[in-house]
């Protein structure tokens, strides 16, 4: 970009020197056309660069947002799994309580049997 600007400045200086040396109208018209073309080229290059920069910014922001969303989803899944594990631990406690109740019931049955046997 800087090189293009330097080249255009050099061309404009050469054109100004030609204009002062020759007062020919055709040369002046050609020089003006060349200057206009160069200005159009510079403007298009600047516009293209701005568009490229904007698209890069948009792409990077969308990628960052997607990564953040994925991280949040993973964290939520991990929290759910941890919560499920805790619930599973609660389930283990319930199972232990059920086992204790079953053991107590069995002991009660044994005592009843013993009581029945003693009566006989």
Number of strands: 0
Query: Shape from CA axes?
Result: rod-shaped
**Number of helical elements:** 2
State the helicity in percent bands.
over 70%
Measured between the Cα atoms of the first and last residue, the distance is 112 Å
Largest sheet: none
Taking Cα atoms only, what radius of gyration do you get, to the nearest Å? 44 Å
Region (Disordered): 66-120
InterPro entries: Cyt_c_oxidase_su2_TM_dom (IPR011759)
Membrane topology: Multi-pass membrane protein
Transmembrane segments: 5-20, 26-59
Describe the structure.
The chain has two helices and no strands. Helix 1 (2-21) runs antiparallel to helix 2 (25-119). With 120 residues, it is mostly helical. The protein is rod-shaped, with a radius of gyration of 44 Å. The termini are far apart. The longest helix is centred in the middle third of the chain and has 95 residues, at 25-119. The protein has helices spanning 2-21, 25-119.
Short account of what is shown:
By secondary structure, the protein is mainly alpha-helical. The protein contains 2 helices and no strands. The longest helix is centred in the middle third of the chain and has 95 residues, at 25-119.
Topology record:
Elements lengths: L1 H20 L3 H95 L1
Helix pairs in contact: 1-2
Task: Give descriptors for this structure.
membrane; Cyt_c_oxidase_su2_TM_dom; Cytochrome oxidase subunit II transmembrane region profile domain-containing protein; transmembrane helix; mainly alpha; transmembrane
